[in-house]
């Protein structure tokens, strides 16, 4: 059965690797599965396929089930009846991407159940449990009573609610982002990078992974401090307090690392055990508030539920310089565990459903728990207590001051107003232990809270770091991208996290680093919120989150709120966080990683561009804002580098430059080559840092293509106004049609009121034959490297660019002969890069012979403002009448000064009208001899017949009519040779040939003789509309 092919015998591959210099020609690999077409639901045999999810999977899928739909060409091209129709339906990638490297395509991955032994978690174990454990920290058992003692339960509720508002908004934004497509591993990094691009994602991913690694040390030190406190109470210290913290901390991290490396299943089991202990401890607090209190507890300020205690604890009582913001700063880090589930997104069975459900429910449960525990303590514990059972109220005492509630309950704690007491919610961090039904359970709960948070961070940091390294944004870190085992565990990342954690544990005191880590987490939250806002603001059709309960303005408010909270927690830590993030952002921006994730930044850029283009269209052009917008006829982007470099120097980052190519021939033969080259040429322009666009058309002739480009290029006011083309050096051998086409393009440019610029260099401009030879050699070497298995290429297609007959004829306006020796090629290559280098000290000679609106003067001035041309000074030459040279010079000097253009010299040439020398004219005669009709020596009938047979030839009448203009071009070359032979660049006013009066070959002779044997020369003719003004 034969395969239905498109024209050219090759089918388009959606997995085409656009990073190569040339588009590969794909050949079918032996292992490719080809299924015959089926009688579809439409009742007939067809190449068309019904919609299927497999068509939308990423290229380079690891699953081996990426389907390839028929190409448009296969359905649209002329049908070739070869029997039964067939088309490849499914392709196998042998677990490799299209570039031959292992691919990690989660979008098209095999369902988890189909992979033997792979562990995937649901929303409860994977997200809810992890988030709750991370949010329920030591704050719950040690600092919560102090916070409500300082702020009162009125402002205490505000502290908790405000924290929950920040985390809830972030949760809503995260839910919207993660339901807008399949989520891979990497959690916050993945969501931010895919939404805002690699610059934001790469910067926040690195500091977020680092923050999680240091957070491990923070939680472990908290655990170690509790253990050492117990050892100290029982007089069991090993060395000293600080060293015991280090010893216990290091041992703990080793054990946690062992659990993590053992696999996600063991880690999940450990988390469940810790959750049970934590839940029992929380319940223990509530139970303890209902157990009747002893006299000893009452002396320590602990009572059963009392309304007067509850009311007394309503108002704030800030002490020791504390304020609402400082108390909030201490509590908020307890709420920063909401990303614990998202961080292991790669290990979730269904991240899109699990992350929103688990995260938001965890925020609700933990928020209610914090409020419930805090309110219970506020209703049962007074702020100050002496702990002395004898401090009771005697008869006749009046209850006033700060301990009214205790006084009413029979205890006198008024001495606490004079000296600091050891008991009460504001003085003792062990209030929860004393309130609870069984104190040791609170210690166990504290252990559970610290260890669970440490374990979650120890898992999160390597997972996020591995995802960052896989994207290869920081190439030096790619070593850590490798995963091991059935779950692709980041063992190298675990080891790095372990080293970082131990390093900070050995410091022992993390009070300085703690606010920085909190700010790192907050920066992540801010960017998640901003990502949601940005994607919504861009209104990209690709932004279609399944989760609808979000609002773009609420997300923006959440982002701003996170930024404010960063400064509330610690202003210098916030500034440091911003500084680190900006530095990393700039680094990634400069490195320009070769990734394209369809970020909202691209969408907003597009929207802004359209908006700006529309705004610009509503404003009339003004001469002060004129800048050259160049349509450069370069052929392919690499064919004429000198022409492109000079055009780029004129436009740089401030104007439009379009590199254009015309594919000449029947459309059926040219379209394939043109389409294949579009992305390739634009990619080359970007990689070579040429700020230009590439445009191509397929037409029957070069002139038709150029005419289409002249008329249709650009958008609104952003359209070309200057044509730049290379001089056709081979015009005498190119043939009649080629010359007529070339001169016709010049006529068309003037008809469409374009400024026209022609560049001529001695060695020519076209290096396409050298580029093609280099590409062919490179591809042959590449083909050898890609066949390690006895010559059999791996992957979906074997890539090759076999030497084949070019399907089209490309017009070369300055092409060298096909056979050239190495020496000529070396000179041509050297000349082709002359405008890419910094120009030596010298001059740009401007021969402003005719007033064309000022373009002939403006373009060289623009060149002198560029870094490469700063050592080249302007010299202006004008034609003057004999006897008034000084007057002409002063007039030109005055005009140039009014234009505010600096030039080193103004020269008036009064000998231009002198007839040229016989030798010079002889060169012109030899040049045009083959194209002259010589009809004057024949009779009238014969002359008429000759003109009819050769209408393109130069007649004797034409030579006579334009004798003076012809002599002028010859004489100008003599003057140029005399005055500008050593210039870096010569600018000359381009002569105009009147249509249907000057033949094409005579006009080409004018251009040739004018610029012959000179340094690089630009012939310029503006559209005779002013581009310079001396008005402000």
Automatic annotation (TrEMBL):
Chain residue ranges for the region called Disordered: 1-37, 85-111
Occurrences of domain Amino acid permease N-terminal (ranges): 33-100
GO cellular component: apical plasma membrane
Topology class, membrane: Multi-pass membrane protein
Annotated GO MF terms: sodium:potassium:chloride symporter activity
Pfam entry (one): AA_permease
Catalytic activity: K(+)(out) + 2 chloride(out) + Na(+)(out) = K(+)(in) + 2 chloride(in) + Na(+)(in)
Positions of transmembrane segments: 127-148, 154-183, 204-224, 244-263, 272-291, 324-346, 358-382, 438-461, 494-514, 520-538, 550-573
A GO biological-process term: sodium ion homeostasis
UniProt entry tagged with the keyword Transport: yes
NAD as UniProt keyword: no
Biased composition (Basic and acidic residues): 1-14
Family: Belongs to the SLC12A transporter family.
Protein's UniProt name: Solute carrier family 12 member 1
Species assigned in the record: Gasterosteus aculeatus aculeatus
